[in-house]
Amino acid sequence: MISKPISQSQASRLWAIAHAQGLKPCEVRSVFSEFGIVSTALITTEQYDHIIHRIQEYAAVEF
Questions:
Q1: β-bridge partners, 44
Q2: How is the chain split among helix, strand and coil, in percent rounded to 5?
Q3: Which H/E stretch holds residue 45?
Q4: Residue 42: how many other CB atoms lie within 10 Å
Q5: What predicted TM-score, i.e. pTM, was given to this entire model?
Q6: Within 13 Å of residue 49, how many CA atoms lie on the same side as its CB?
């Protein structure tokens, strides 16, 4: 079964969550790279929740 790409609304929500967590765009892209993603247009519905969870984990780590 081939997973579909996320919707524009889901992409916007992802960025809103990352922003609310205090992450910079470069940090979000770092999370994307862990999944082999270079653009939200390439995120599948199957990956979406995993990426949101990873963004929240990433934000929780203090550097």
A1: 5
A2: 65, 5, 30
A3: helix 45-60
A4: 13
A5: 0.89
A6: 1
